[in-house]
Amino acid sequence: MSRCLLLVVALSIAIEAAGPSWGAWGLWSLECASCPGAVSRGRTRVCIPGDDLSTCSGSRIELEHCQNCTGQWSEWVDGEECSDTCGHCGRTTRTRQCVNAAGCPAPTCEGADNELSPTPCDSGEVCLFPRVACCEGVKVRGIVL
After folding, report:
1. From what superkingdom does this record's organism come (predicted)?
2. What is the mean pLDDT of residues 102-111?
3. CA atoms within 13 A on the CB side of 103
4. Rounded to whole angstroms, how far apart are CA atoms 12 and 7?
5. Structure confidence at residue 96 (pLDDT)
6. How far is CA 43 from CA 30, 46, 60, 63, 64, in A?
7. Residue 8's pLDDT is what?
8. When comparing pLDDT for 81 and 114, which is higher?
9. Is residue 62 exposed (0-12), middle (13-18) or buried (19+ Cβ within 10 Å)?
10. Nearest 5°: CA angle at 82, between 80 and 87?
11. Beta strands in the chain (DSSP E)
12. Which of 69, 102, 109, 117 has the greatest count of CB atoms below 10 A from its CB?
């Protein structure tokens, strides 16, 4: 009789200790490599409630962003401020944006998002002093200013 009593006590302890727990994760919804253009994939798991019907902590859904989250560059937009005030010496900085692919949290684009404009900006003012870099200066009666 003491044997049965021990078994009941052990079983009772095991049941009381059973709290909520997560089951194993299910399969991923897709393989990123086999689905070009995929932004993300997901999988789920089931909560096995405890004896007191308590629920599991944490999320039942796991999302993973696929590695290929490539955006595309927008058109270049010229800045308004010229880097120099005379002649054709100055340049504006032009910018572009990496445009988000649908649902992509942080797209990546190759290259820089800003650069000096390839064409000089002209403020309309004459360069009074020569600059070796770009301006020759203005000649007045044979004298270079």
Report:
1. Eukaryota
2. 73
3. 10
4. 9
5. 92
6. 9, 11, 8, 7, 9
7. 41
8. 114
9. middle
10. 135
11. 21-22, 40-44, 47-48, 61-65, 72-73, 77-78, 93-95, 98-99, 114-116, 139-140, 143-144
12. 69
